[in-house]
Amino acid sequence: MQYDKTQLIQSEVARLTVKYGKEYFDCNDLMVIMGIGRDNARALLRSKNFPTTTVGNRKVVSILSFVIWQTTA
Length: 73
Fold this sequence. Notes:
Blueprint: H1 5-20, E1 24-25, H2 27-34, H3 38-46, E2 53-55, E3 58-62, H4 63-72
Antiparallel strand pairs: 1-3, 2-3
């Protein structure tokens, strides 16, 4: 059975949005989701290939961008 990549991405975004009750992930969320430490999560948020958005002094990533990044990484 063949799955459409767009449908898989949409379902994963919906699942994560419901599970975490938010549309953006911050450093602490990435630590929990990816099982990495604070330094690695911060380094990831600062890397050029990671799709972050700056909100005030914080860097966050939208769940949609995070899921797309995971599928291409």
